[in-house]
Amino acid sequence: MLANVGAIREDAAMDFDANGLLDGLEGDDRAAREQLLTQLAQDGFSLEELTKAVQEHRLPLLPLDRVLGGTHTAREIEQQTGLPAQLMIRIRRQHGLPQPGLEDRVFSDEDIEAARSTKLFLDAGFDEERIIEITRVLGEGMGRVAATITAAFVETFLQAGDSEEQVAQRFATLGEQLTPALTPILVAGFKAHLRDSVQRGVLGQAELQTGDIAGAQELGVCFADLVGFTRLGGQVEVRELGTVAGRLAHLAASVTEPPVRLIKTIGDAAMFVSPEAGPLVKVALALVEAFEREELPSLRAGVAWGPALIRAGDYYGNSVNLASRVTGVARPGSVLCTQEIHDAALDNFEWSPAGKHKLKGVSGPTPLYRARLAAQRESEPAQETKKPRAGRSRKRAPR
Questions:
Q1: What is the dihedral of CA 247, 297, 221, 369, to 10 degrees?
Q2: By CB neighbour count within 10 A (0-12 exposed, 13-18 middle, 19+ buried), where does 234 fall?
Q3: Mean pLDDT over residues 269-281, rounded?
Q4: Other C-beta atoms within 10 Å of 83: how many?
Q5: Which of 89, 142, 257, 293 falls 20 to 30 Å from 389 in CA-CA distance?
Q6: Taking phi first (over 0 means left), then psi (-120 to 50 degrees means alpha), and beta for anything else, what does residue 196 get?
Q7: Is residue 222 within 8 Å of 302, Cβ to Cβ?
Q8: CA distance 20 to 42
């Protein structure tokens, strides 16, 4: 939090006006900037740090940065925990954060506890590359969580007409109070997902004998994307575009029901997987219908069946590529499916042939079918009545 205004240490005394830190400001705005600069200097910020913050238009955020900032170096953490300093730096880079030097004070008290936990995993038998893989996935997820929380924080607590000094004080105080409250929320969410992952896991005799989990597994994959999203970006404001992408993420999560899993949403697209075809098609249709009901830009979806390999929380393989290609040829407001999906869920929906298409990376024309909800069953849950064609593995993918 900011220090109270008082006598500034001799080495912190600065001529803010002479250094251009008050340029362009008059009256109350100038007085508020000068008061904030005085408080920040007393709190230990250097002239270089203040100048950079003014140039980057982030001066009111410096106190909050100090609340969240680190006070330990990688070398100090190594001495306290036994985790090599270079590994700490590598882990930080895998989080997607700037690479620090060995003596840079960028690590927090929480980083010390994280280092002890990482050391525990290594001692238990995890190899370093597994740690790095977990860290990379964690960094991707946490980056999105942090960006979302930051935007919500600013939108909630920034008030029209605020001075820089008022914003700095308010944000620092609230950050100090609310940041610790995030810990149980994040831990609870992680444990819930971890338990769900364990419940969906497969560990049978084959896995016990080989000492490894199964490789590629047969499952359905669905992609849904917004039609003309790139072109739309040149026609509407960024905020409106973000709202559309946000609605896609919200609606995709809302219509998903087991055994279907929402794997990710990225801007204009959503990806789902399922060990059963019928529920996957039902989710795709529900999402398309939700977009039509809310009069949002048109959505289209493609569904395919085949082998897929899970790595770092994502799926790769033939079915993934095929579903993406099918989505690319689908018309706005439609759900296109491959022959295997059509055959597996034949009795659950109304079907119409959509022709044979030459898809990139696929040999020969691929027959596709458009799925629609059967009128007499729109209010009933679709039940899986057929499995994929004979000759295909029916090993269940993790749900």
A1: 150
A2: exposed
A3: 95
A4: 21
A5: 257
A6: alpha
A7: yes
A8: 19
Please, what is the Cα angle at 166 between 163 and 167, to 5 degrees? 90
CB 71 within 8 A of CB 105: yes
CB 67 within 8 A of CB 172: yes
SS3 of residue 124 by DSSP: helix
89-118 pLDDT tens trace: 999 999 999 999 999 999 999 999 999 999
How is 254-300 classified by DSSP, letter by letter?
HH--TT-EEEEEETTEEEEEESSHHHHHHHHHHHHHHHHHTTPSPEE
Nearest-angstrom CA–CA distance, 47 and 52: 8
For 31-63, the pLDDT digits (tens) are 999 999 999 999 889 999 999 999 999 999 999
Q: At residue 399, does pLDDT exceed 70?
A: no
SS3 label, residue 352 = strand
Three-class SS of residue 8?
Answer: coil
Given a contact cutoff of 8 angstroms between Cβ atoms, the answer to whether 201 and 398 are in contact is yes
Q: What percent of the chain has pLDDT over 70?
A: 83
DSSP assignment of 206-254? HHHHHTS---SEEEEEEEEEETTHHHHTTTS-HHHHHHHHHHHHHHHHH
User: pLDDT tens-digit profile of 17-35?
Assistant: 999 999 999 999 999 999 9
pLDDT confidence tier of residue 225, bands split at 50, 70 and 90: very high
The torsion defined by the Cα of 100, 102, 104 and 108, in degrees rounded to 10, comes to 90
Task: Output the pLDDT for position 12.
Answer: 41
pTM of the model: 0.69
Hey, what are 139's tokens?
């960094």
Looking from the CA of 142 toward its CB, the CA atoms found within 13 Å total 17
Taking the C-alpha atoms of residue 316 and residue 313, their distance in angstroms, rounded to an integer, is 10
**Burial of residue 189, with CB atoms counted within 10 A of its CB: 0-12 exposed, 13-18 middle, 19 or more buried:** exposed
Q: Which of 299, 292, 34, 301 is nearest to 168 (CA)?
A: 34
**Percentage of residues in the chain with pLDDT exceeding 90?**
63
Q: Give pLDDT, residue 14.
A: 78
